[in-house]
Amino acid sequence: MLHTINKSPFEKNSLDTCLRLAKPGSEILLLEDGVYAAVKGTAVEQQVMQALSDYTVYALGPDLKARGIEEKRLIDGIEVVGYDGFVDLAANSERVQSWL
Amino acid sequence: MLHTINKSPFEKNSLDTCLRLAKPGSEILLLEDGVYAAVKGTAVEQQVMQALSDYTVYALGPDLKARGIEEKRLIDGIEVVGYDGFVDLAANSERVQSWL
Amino acid sequence: MGNGAKKFMYVNRRAPYGTIYALEGLEVVLIGAAFDQDVCMAFVDDGVYQLQKGQDTAESNMKNFSPTYRALGDYEVTKLYVEKESLEQRGMSEDDLMELTYEDEDDDYQEKPSIRIVNRGELTDLMEQQDVILNY
Amino acid sequence: MGNGAKKFMYVNRRAPYGTIYALEGLEVVLIGAAFDQDVCMAFVDDGVYQLQKGQDTAESNMKNFSPTYRALGDYEVTKLYVEKESLEQRGMSEDDLMELTYEDEDDDYQEKPSIRIVNRGELTDLMEQQDVILNY
Amino acid sequence: MKFGILVNEGPYQHQAADTAFNFTKAALDKGHEIVRVFFYHDGVNNGTRLTTPPQDDRNIVNQWSELAKEHELDLVVCVAAAQRRGIVDEDEAKRHGKNADNIAEGFRISGLGQLIEMGIKADRLMAFGD
Amino acid sequence: MKFGILVNEGPYQHQAADTAFNFTKAALDKGHEIVRVFFYHDGVNNGTRLTTPPQDDRNIVNQWSELAKEHELDLVVCVAAAQRRGIVDEDEAKRHGKNADNIAEGFRISGLGQLIEMGIKADRLMAFGD
User: Fold this and answer.
1) Catalytic residue among F35, F60, F78, F122
2) In this structure, are residues F24 and D29 in contact, taking their beta carbons and an 8 Å threshold?
3) pLDDT digit string (tens) for A78-96?
């Protein structure tokens, strides 16, 4: 199952709720302002690193670039995908939950 | 100075930021979904009780009623005002900061 | 419910009135009821506030749509899952929520409660059983 | 600046692109610069992301408005206060921010930095000195 | 006392549009002056006459139009924000080759300078948004 | 594979409107089918032809209209949400006594049932919003 998060973890509670309710083994895609959760050294870094042991975490490349986040600043283990990869993730999951 | 907060403290970071930056002695008005911070027994109760020692905290009555929150459920010390009281608070403060 | 019925879950995470998502989300559920699918609703985070008793919008001049939740049973929307952790974080219990019921046609039309308090693990399992999840 | 000038502070608390507030907020600042008031900007919470270096929107097909911040100096908007605590929470330092400067007409047009890192207490004091605070 | 009112969100989606109206009405009832109501961001969507909300709900656009008529309020829709979102008066329609306009009674379209001017003239600027 | 696309926010204010478009385009490029694009909540505001964004910015409404033409997309604006927000086609204008309409090319106004039907027909329903 694919979960998407499009909110900054510093502004809204979407990441918290997703991590509380997503089944281990699920895929999580960070996009729009949600990509800020993927960056090293932030106040949510531990939470995201913990999540990486339960989930596969992706971040949307075009949204990282728009926000000036270079890939080397990402937490190890987070995979970058484009819109085509987003489509593949959705197609390959049985269902999608957007934590709007 | 009057600070207004219209967001739920469980959904957004507006309350946190307001309490970090508002000068002690200021007035804080909770309105719209912000009124949920005024209720007893929630996960932010301690934070709000602490705030009451530094600030005067108000909640907008019409927004409490819309959401089914009876006044007896409010944290002691929070004052309820109507739209007319909101106008008075704004008029009596030197400036207003809306933490949108 | 037909054999080809899909499982729809409407996840409500927003408080009522501050934004319109709760009201317009409810409109989807009511329309959807005519399509003979397997429908349930989940109330998570601030979504639990939608079910708060005693809403009165007279002074704020908005439309009070809370009575509509009582109609859900008649539309055969009978599974309203409320996350226990979300209630607790907000200092609420089932007593704070509206009493919502439905008549169980498979059990001599007995009146039964629609609200079911579930913990996070149960909600996770429920989500995994769905075909379509709509989040407001 | 006239004697009757008011002190305006534009408080930016949102990330760029996810919503339009940053872009349209900047448009207010640029227009406001023509009114000869005492203007400053504050960057708090996700607002600090607006000043991140190296923004490139080609693949997301949005308008990259970050170059506009470089024009602020020419509009005599020279006080950009960035909250230290907000940077730290996001694992950022001044090195991550665009280099924004202005020419100080009171000091032989020397080029000086517009960004000033302030702590929460300093920002509190600055807010208390304003006449008008606009929050995006 | 002179209030300036800034509305940043459209009708119905966010309560901000309602709160702005209720505040404005309460301020007028108390004898205060409203320098201007400025609609910015999605707030410009409060200025369309094409809404038809359900009959058992409030009509946010008409409420503003009526309050403006009664108190000679200056309701200003930001032109730049309106162009992005499709709020158009007769002049704007002509200027951009549109074959229709949708501005509501009592609203006018003008520049962002009107917001700054409102901030200068008003004793208090009140912002309502998301 | 069949995708259904739900758009819950208007153009420009939230990136959701852009993400929905970029996803839809990418899905089509990969040979997937788009059952329908349904515009709900403020998302209905994507369906007005009266926008004139700055020339150096993308035109979100036209992007949808052009993509719809190219791929015969079904762009549906929810009637109830549209009535609250003032998105109107010729029929709706007549029905509610409005003297103008503003629907953009390639969009049609219809009921919420089209959203449910899209959820039933599509293999995946993708929601984009705030």
Assistant:
1) F78
2) no
3) 999 999 999 999 999 999 9
